[in-house]
Design goal:
Number of strands: 7
Strand content: 5-15%
Number of helices: 5
Order of helices and strands: HEEEEEHHEEHH
Strand order of the largest sheet: 2-1-3
Number of domains: 2
Radius of gyration: 22 Å
Protein backbone atom coordinates (compact mmCIF):
# COMPACT_ATOMS: atom_id res chain seq x y z
CA UNK A 1 0.00 0.00 0.00
CA UNK A 2 2.81 2.41 0.87
CA UNK A 3 4.46 1.73 -2.45
CA UNK A 4 1.19 2.44 -4.26
CA UNK A 5 0.73 5.77 -2.45
CA UNK A 6 4.34 6.80 -3.17
CA UNK A 7 3.94 5.94 -6.87
CA UNK A 8 0.69 7.92 -7.06
CA UNK A 9 2.38 10.94 -5.47
CA UNK A 10 5.28 10.73 -7.92
CA UNK A 11 2.86 10.58 -10.87
CA UNK A 12 0.91 13.57 -9.54
CA UNK A 13 4.10 15.58 -9.08
CA UNK A 14 5.28 14.72 -12.58
CA UNK A 15 1.92 15.77 -14.06
CA UNK A 16 1.99 19.08 -12.19
CA UNK A 17 5.54 19.73 -13.40
CA UNK A 18 4.55 18.97 -16.98
CA UNK A 19 1.56 21.33 -16.80
CA UNK A 20 3.80 24.07 -15.41
CA UNK A 21 6.22 23.60 -18.32
CA UNK A 22 3.39 23.82 -20.83
CA UNK A 23 2.04 26.97 -19.21
CA UNK A 24 5.49 28.57 -19.28
CA UNK A 25 5.99 27.64 -22.93
CA UNK A 26 2.58 29.06 -23.81
CA UNK A 27 3.35 32.31 -22.03
CA UNK A 28 6.65 32.64 -23.86
CA UNK A 29 5.03 31.92 -27.23
CA UNK A 30 2.39 34.56 -26.57
CA UNK A 31 4.86 37.21 -25.44
CA UNK A 32 4.20 40.45 -27.34
CA UNK A 33 7.00 42.05 -29.39
CA UNK A 34 9.08 44.81 -27.75
CA UNK A 35 7.44 48.22 -27.94
CA UNK A 36 3.89 46.93 -28.48
CA UNK A 37 1.28 48.95 -26.54
CA UNK A 38 -1.72 46.69 -27.12
CA UNK A 39 -2.73 43.25 -28.36
CA UNK A 40 -5.68 43.19 -30.77
CA UNK A 41 -8.44 40.58 -30.64
CA UNK A 42 -7.16 38.90 -33.82
CA UNK A 43 -3.70 38.50 -32.26
CA UNK A 44 -2.08 41.44 -34.07
CA UNK A 45 0.18 43.65 -31.90
CA UNK A 46 -0.35 47.41 -31.99
CA UNK A 47 2.29 50.09 -31.49
CA UNK A 48 -0.17 52.99 -31.23
CA UNK A 49 1.02 55.89 -29.08
CA UNK A 50 -2.57 56.73 -28.06
CA UNK A 51 -5.67 54.70 -27.22
CA UNK A 52 -7.87 56.39 -29.84
CA UNK A 53 -8.45 54.09 -32.82
CA UNK A 54 -6.12 51.36 -31.59
CA UNK A 55 -6.93 47.99 -33.23
CA UNK A 56 -9.91 49.55 -35.01
CA UNK A 57 -9.39 47.22 -37.98
CA UNK A 58 -8.53 44.15 -35.95
CA UNK A 59 -11.62 43.59 -33.83
CA UNK A 60 -10.73 46.05 -31.08
CA UNK A 61 -8.26 45.81 -28.20
CA UNK A 62 -7.96 42.52 -26.33
CA UNK A 63 -5.29 43.68 -23.86
CA UNK A 64 -3.48 46.94 -23.22
CA UNK A 65 0.25 46.46 -22.75
CA UNK A 66 0.99 50.00 -21.58
CA UNK A 67 -0.01 49.44 -17.96
CA UNK A 68 -3.71 50.36 -18.26
CA UNK A 69 -4.93 46.79 -17.94
CA UNK A 70 -7.17 44.58 -20.07
CA UNK A 71 -9.77 46.07 -22.38
CA UNK A 72 -13.39 45.13 -21.53
CA UNK A 73 -14.34 42.21 -23.76
CA UNK A 74 -17.86 43.60 -24.33
CA UNK A 75 -16.83 47.14 -25.22
CA UNK A 76 -16.61 47.75 -28.98
CA UNK A 77 -13.78 49.87 -30.30
CA UNK A 78 -14.84 53.50 -30.62
CA UNK A 79 -13.66 53.70 -34.25
CA UNK A 80 -15.17 50.40 -35.32
CA UNK A 81 -18.53 50.61 -37.15
CA UNK A 82 -21.50 48.89 -35.54
CA UNK A 83 -22.31 45.49 -36.98
CA UNK A 84 -25.65 46.75 -38.29
CA UNK A 85 -24.13 49.76 -40.05
CA UNK A 86 -23.31 49.45 -43.78
CA UNK A 87 -19.56 49.22 -44.36
CA UNK A 88 -18.01 52.01 -46.41
CA UNK A 89 -15.30 51.54 -49.01
CA UNK A 90 -11.97 50.91 -47.36
CA UNK A 91 -13.42 49.06 -44.36
CA UNK A 92 -14.27 45.60 -45.73
CA UNK A 93 -11.93 42.77 -46.65
CA UNK A 94 -11.95 39.57 -48.66
CA UNK A 95 -8.72 37.57 -48.41
CA UNK A 96 -7.48 36.16 -51.71
CA UNK A 97 -6.01 33.20 -49.81
CA UNK A 98 -5.95 32.14 -46.18
CA UNK A 99 -3.52 33.97 -43.90
CA UNK A 100 -1.76 31.15 -42.08
CA UNK A 101 0.99 33.03 -40.28
CA UNK A 102 1.15 36.31 -38.34
CA UNK A 103 4.87 36.35 -37.50
CA UNK A 104 8.28 35.07 -38.57
CA UNK A 105 7.44 36.17 -42.12
CA UNK A 106 10.14 35.94 -44.78
CA UNK A 107 11.29 39.18 -46.41
CA UNK A 108 12.04 39.15 -50.11
CA UNK A 109 11.20 40.69 -53.45
CA UNK A 110 7.69 39.26 -53.12
CA UNK A 111 5.49 39.21 -50.02
CA UNK A 112 5.40 36.06 -47.91
CA UNK A 113 2.08 34.47 -49.01
CA UNK A 114 1.60 32.84 -45.62
CA UNK A 115 1.54 36.24 -43.92
CA UNK A 116 0.50 38.50 -46.78
CA UNK A 117 -1.79 36.67 -49.23
CA UNK A 118 -3.40 39.85 -50.50
CA UNK A 119 -6.91 41.13 -49.82
CA UNK A 120 -9.51 43.21 -51.63
CA UNK A 121 -12.33 45.55 -50.67
CA UNK A 122 -15.56 44.36 -52.34
CA UNK A 123 -16.96 47.89 -52.24
CA UNK A 124 -14.27 49.01 -54.67
CA UNK A 125 -15.82 47.74 -57.87
CA UNK A 126 -14.61 48.48 -61.39
CA UNK A 127 -17.21 51.22 -61.80
CA UNK A 128 -16.01 52.90 -58.59
CA UNK A 129 -12.32 52.58 -59.40
CA UNK A 130 -12.72 53.85 -62.95
CA UNK A 131 -14.99 56.78 -62.09
CA UNK A 132 -13.65 60.28 -62.69
CA UNK A 133 -14.02 61.25 -59.03
CA UNK A 134 -12.18 58.29 -57.49
CA UNK A 135 -8.97 59.04 -55.59
CA UNK A 136 -7.04 56.48 -53.54
CA UNK A 137 -6.57 59.05 -50.79
CA UNK A 138 -10.27 58.70 -49.95
CA UNK A 139 -9.88 55.00 -49.07
CA UNK A 140 -6.29 54.90 -47.76
CA UNK A 141 -6.38 54.10 -44.04
CA UNK A 142 -3.07 52.63 -42.89
CA UNK A 143 -2.03 53.86 -39.45
CA UNK A 144 1.53 54.05 -38.17
CA UNK A 145 0.74 51.31 -35.67
CA UNK A 146 -0.45 49.03 -38.47
CA UNK A 147 2.74 49.70 -40.45
CA UNK A 148 4.77 48.84 -37.37
CA UNK A 149 2.79 45.60 -36.95
CA UNK A 150 3.76 44.63 -40.51
CA UNK A 151 7.41 45.42 -39.79
CA UNK A 152 7.40 43.30 -36.62
CA UNK A 153 5.72 40.41 -38.45
CA UNK A 154 8.59 40.48 -40.95
CA UNK A 155 11.27 40.57 -38.25
CA UNK A 156 12.00 44.29 -38.53
CA UNK A 157 12.24 46.91 -35.82
CA UNK A 158 9.05 49.03 -35.66
CA UNK A 159 10.30 52.42 -36.84
CA UNK A 160 10.35 54.84 -39.76
CA UNK A 161 12.51 53.64 -42.66
CA UNK A 162 12.18 56.63 -44.95
CA UNK A 163 12.60 55.79 -48.64
CA UNK A 164 14.41 52.51 -48.00
CA UNK A 165 11.20 50.59 -47.24
CA UNK A 166 7.55 51.18 -48.05
CA UNK A 167 4.72 49.32 -46.34
CA UNK A 168 2.95 48.69 -49.60
CA UNK A 169 -0.48 47.41 -50.59
CA UNK A 170 -0.03 44.10 -52.39
CA UNK A 171 -3.24 44.67 -54.34
CA UNK A 172 -3.05 48.43 -54.82
CA UNK A 173 -5.93 50.67 -53.80
CA UNK A 174 -6.51 51.66 -57.42
CA UNK A 175 -7.15 47.96 -58.10
CA UNK A 176 -9.56 47.58 -55.20
CA UNK A 177 -7.06 46.49 -52.55
CA UNK A 178 -7.89 46.43 -48.86
CA UNK A 179 -6.11 48.26 -46.02
CA UNK A 180 -6.03 45.03 -44.01
CA UNK A 181 -2.66 43.74 -42.74
CA UNK A 182 -3.07 40.71 -45.01
CA UNK A 183 -2.68 43.08 -47.97
CA UNK A 184 0.44 44.87 -46.69
CA UNK A 185 4.14 44.00 -46.80
CA UNK A 186 7.53 45.76 -46.52
CA UNK A 187 8.64 46.50 -50.09
CA UNK A 188 12.20 47.60 -50.97
CA UNK A 189 12.67 51.24 -51.87
CA UNK A 190 14.92 50.61 -54.86
CA UNK A 191 16.13 48.02 -57.33
CA UNK A 192 14.17 45.94 -59.82
CA UNK A 193 11.67 44.84 -57.17
CA UNK A 194 11.20 48.26 -55.56
CA UNK A 195 7.94 50.11 -55.08
CA UNK A 196 8.58 52.51 -57.96
CA UNK A 197 8.70 49.56 -60.38
CA UNK A 198 5.54 48.07 -58.87
CA UNK A 199 3.81 51.47 -59.08
CA UNK A 200 4.36 51.44 -62.84
CA UNK A 201 2.66 48.06 -63.07
CA UNK A 202 -0.23 49.18 -60.87
CA UNK A 203 -0.89 52.20 -63.08
CA UNK A 204 -0.80 50.03 -66.21
CA UNK A 205 -3.19 47.48 -64.71
CA UNK A 206 -5.61 50.22 -63.72
CA UNK A 207 -5.65 51.45 -67.33
CA UNK A 208 -6.17 47.91 -68.65
CA UNK A 209 -9.04 47.25 -66.24
CA UNK A 210 -10.78 50.53 -67.02
CA UNK A 211 -10.33 49.95 -70.77
CA UNK A 212 -11.95 46.53 -70.44
CA UNK A 213 -8.82 44.73 -71.63
CA UNK A 214 -8.36 42.89 -68.32
CA UNK A 215 -10.89 41.97 -65.65
CA UNK A 216 -10.48 43.46 -62.20
CA UNK A 217 -10.40 39.99 -60.63
CA UNK A 218 -7.58 38.88 -62.95
CA UNK A 219 -5.53 41.97 -62.13
CA UNK A 220 -6.06 41.44 -58.39
CA UNK A 221 -5.15 37.75 -58.45
CA UNK A 222 -2.16 38.28 -60.73
CA UNK A 223 -0.54 41.06 -58.73
CA UNK A 224 -1.08 39.18 -55.46
CA UNK A 225 0.32 35.91 -56.79
CA UNK A 226 3.54 37.26 -58.36
CA UNK A 227 3.69 40.88 -59.43
CA UNK A 228 7.14 40.50 -61.02
CA UNK A 229 5.83 37.77 -63.30
CA UNK A 230 2.78 39.89 -64.14
CA UNK A 231 5.08 42.83 -64.91
CA UNK A 232 6.89 40.72 -67.54
CA UNK A 233 3.56 39.66 -69.00
CA UNK A 234 2.23 43.24 -69.24
CA UNK A 235 5.39 45.00 -70.44
CA UNK A 236 7.08 42.10 -72.23
CA UNK A 237 10.32 42.66 -70.35
CA UNK A 238 11.92 42.15 -66.95
CA UNK A 239 11.94 45.25 -64.70
Amino acid sequence: MAGTITCARLLAAAAASCLACLATAGALAAAPPPGATALCRDGTPSFSATHAGTCSRHGGVATWLDGTGAAPATTPDADRPAASAPAAAGTRTILLHARTRTGACTRGALPDPRCSPGAVDPALTRSVLCSAGFHTSSVRHVSTSLKHAVEVAYGMAPRAYGRTIEIDHIVSLQLGGSNDIANLYPEPGGGTSGYQVKDRLENALHRLVCAGTMTLAAAQRGIAANWLQLYRSVFGATP
